[in-house]
Amino acid sequence: MPKVYLSPAYHYWNPCAVAGCDETTHNNLYLDVLEPYLAACGIQYKRGPRRTPKSGEDGDALMLQAVRESDAWGADVHYVSHTNAANGGVRGYRPMIYPGSGGGRKLAACILKYRRKIYDQPIRLSESSVWYELRAPAAVSFYEEHVFHDNASDAQWFHSHLGAIAEATCRGLCEYFGIPYRAPGTAKPSPAPTIRKEEQVTVELRMLKRGMEGGDVRSAMLLMKDKGYYPYAIPVSDKLFGAKMEAGLRKMQADHGLGVDGILGAASWGYLLGR
């Protein structure tokens, strides 16, 4: 199975034009959404440290740790997720690869192919040996600069398209690895562990209801926010299906004829994932 190491931003505090957010936080939110897409396609992933903004953590030390983990794990791709900044008036997608990397150029072609389908602002690929996470990893490195987070329009686009960006990235990775893309919830089941029937939507996605916790709850919450059914801030640690999430889910179910029961089952997952 292909291996992708996911490395988020580790900055102390790079404020975003969307009030209250910052580069480190929203790149982690994006990777939260990306993970189930990778899993559905049979792509193994390992995640870098999640820094708490404005904490006393050493961001450089966390970055060095990420590269060590990526190399020790034997990642095929070291995927770095950042956003950019300029003067507040610039928009665009500015990914980077290491100079002369044939694998990097091939991967960039695949990822940019699908990003162009969803993003209508300027796209410019560049080569750089300046950044440690481009030059140091043993794996093929791809360094995202998704949008300019100091531009209100670009930042808002990023926050409202996390699901679409995750799907586009996963499609690009699948093309790079030469494997079929499968939307979350449609991948072939793994032989183990056995999931109890009453808890499953498919083998990959659980049926979720109020009181449950986990990464899949958080992913659903973020996808609901993308579609306007969870208009609240989502703390980095929030993985609980609470009353607000149930209320948003019931409204979504009512609006789209999904059966109003407050349980996130097959039909509701299908709507959230665009199936």
UniProtKB/TrEMBL annotation:
Give the matching Gene3D superfamilies.
Answer: PGBD-like superfamily/PGBD (1.10.101.10), Zn-dependent exopeptidases (3.40.630.40)
**Which Pfam family, just one, is annotated for this protein?**
PG_binding_1
Annotated Peptidoglycan binding-like domain ranges read 216-269
What's this protein's name? Peptidoglycan binding-like domain-containing protein
